[in-house]
Specification:
heterodimer, A: mainly beta, 7-stranded mixed beta sheet, about 0% helix, B: about 110 residues, mainly beta, 6-stranded mixed beta sheet, 5-stranded antiparallel beta sheet, 11 strands, globular
Chain lengths: ~120, ~110
């Protein structure tokens, strides 16, 4: 199993508060991703990183920011949480770019966030 | 607009029979197509993939078929087992990974 740890695994917070989710990997993979999973929408990409300090937006990036100061850590921040950000968040890693090979993703176990 | 679509939210199959999960896509530039399996309260796990230059890939009980002209792929599971009951996501890779909405498979013993 790929070494990916997400924290916290569960969090309940109130609207307007900041929230940071952490993804930690021990595989030294270059690419890291944050997805959210919602009923009827599947997995949607929020942000991804292709190296330390190199990040880019996904299809649902509004309201989220990310940082990657070390290869092993990728942080997802909700500056001011809203109820629409209640979701299950998955971190994923990949060692190759999707264009170059199958570059399968390895996922963490997910972080369930509830914004009241 | 969703680039990868799974139009069947759920599927029920008897144990031992074939399960066929379908997926459609819109972008002919995708390089690879992948299937992931997800159990409740766990992250998705990679199941099988196929390159856009192939039309079939087989791995044990799992076979993925790709029809590029129809922009359609399918996952066949033969024989289906109760442990196969899970949500299956189809994905396509290009500059990033795009996922379908998932199909919940129930294999009835």
């Amino acid at each position: 199993d790929a070494g990916i740890t997400q924290s916290p695994r569960h969090k309940v917070t109130e609207t307007g508060t900041p929230v940071t989710l952490r993804c930690h990997q021990t595989e030294n993979h270059r690419y890291m991703y944050w997805y959210r999973q919602d009923p009827g929408h599947g997995l949607r990409l929020i942000h991804y990183s292709y190296g330390v300090k190199d990040t880019d937006k996904g299809e649902v990036s509004d309201g989220y920011s990310v940082s990657r100061s070390k290869t092993e850590d990728f942080l997802l921040t909700l500056e001011s949480a809203t109820s629409s950000q209640t979701s299950v968040y998955f971190c994923a890693i990949s060692e190759r770019d999707g264009h170059l090979s199958a570059g399968e993703l390895f996922f963490g176990e997910g972080s369930r966030l509830t914004v009241l | 607009d969703q680039q990868v679509k799974q139009n069947s939210p759920s599927l029920s199959v008897q144990e031992g029979r074939i399960s066929i999960l379908n997926c459609d896509y819109t972008n002919s530039m995708f390089d690879y197509f992948l299937w992931y399996k997800k159990y409740p309260a766990e992250g998705p796990t990679f199941l099988i993939s196929i390159s856009s230059i192939k039309d079939k890939n087989e791995d044990g009980r799992f076979t993925v078929f790709l029809n590029k002209s129809a922009k359609h792929l399918s996952l066949h599971i033969v024989p289906s087992q109760p442990g196969d009951s899970a949500v299956y996501f189809c994905a396509a890779s290009g500059n990033q990974f795009y996922f379908g909405t998932g199909t919940s498979l129930t294999v009835i013993p």
